[in-house]
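Retro notes (design track)

What went well: tokenization of the new backbones is finally stable.
What didn't: we kept losing track of which sequence belonged to which structure.
Fix going forward: every design gets posted as structure first, then sequence, in one message. First example under the new rule, 193 residues:
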């Protein structure tokens, strides 16, 4: 935008903003992320009536308070969706594939993981307590039963196949172990369809 020691005029700033707002955003964001206040450095003209984004503390507090106050609305929405969410997700499969491909190209998973820590996970789990885990499992009993109903005959078939193989030598037993691994991969393929 300008040299470090130059102040930016309203006209210069407007010209840059009108010409390439994305570049301006990237410049300002990079400075702020580096701990530099662009306004204090004279890179953003001072205007006392310029709208300011809420402080991060206020913004986060309002998000949390609003979400907690809306828990009943969330449940009502889950119980009464405007359309079938499973059918909608299936219908949007091409969009999902495109978004996943883009996320992989941009390495978003790795970048997101780099922004958290094991301590963050422990803090949330400790705040929630063990009861959340057990109540979550309890609420999914029917789903668990459904999955086990699908898995059991497949795993029984793996067992039957392995039991039919010779196990007299170390080589036989090694062959059985490798076959078990391959067959469990096949179980996953069969379940996915």
């Amino acid at each position: 935008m300008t040299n470090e020691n130059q102040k930016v005029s309203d006209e210069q700033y407007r010209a840059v903003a009108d010409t390439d707002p994305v570049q301006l955003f990237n410049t300002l964001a990079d400075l702020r992320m580096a701990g530099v206040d662009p306004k204090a450095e004279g890179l953003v003209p001072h205007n006392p009536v310029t709208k300011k984004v809420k402080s991060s503390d206020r913004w986060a507090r309002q998000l949390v308070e609003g979400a907690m106050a809306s828990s009943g609305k969330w449940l009502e929405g889950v119980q009464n969706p405007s359309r079938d969410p499973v059918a909608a997700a299936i219908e949007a499969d091409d969009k999902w594939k495109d978004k996943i491909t883009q996320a992989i190209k941009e390495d978003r998973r790795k970048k997101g993981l780099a922004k958290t820590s094991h301590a963050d996970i422990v803090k949330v789990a400790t705040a929630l307590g063990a009861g959340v885990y057990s109540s979550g499992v309890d609420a999914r009993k029917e789903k668990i039963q459904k999955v086990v109903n699908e898995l059991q005959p497949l795993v029984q078939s793996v067992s039957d196949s392995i039991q039919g193989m010779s196990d007299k030598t170390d080589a036989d037993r090694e062959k059985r172990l490798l076959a078990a691994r391959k067959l469990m991969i096949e179980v996953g393929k069969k379940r996915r369809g």
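Added context from the reviewer: The mean pLDDT is 88.
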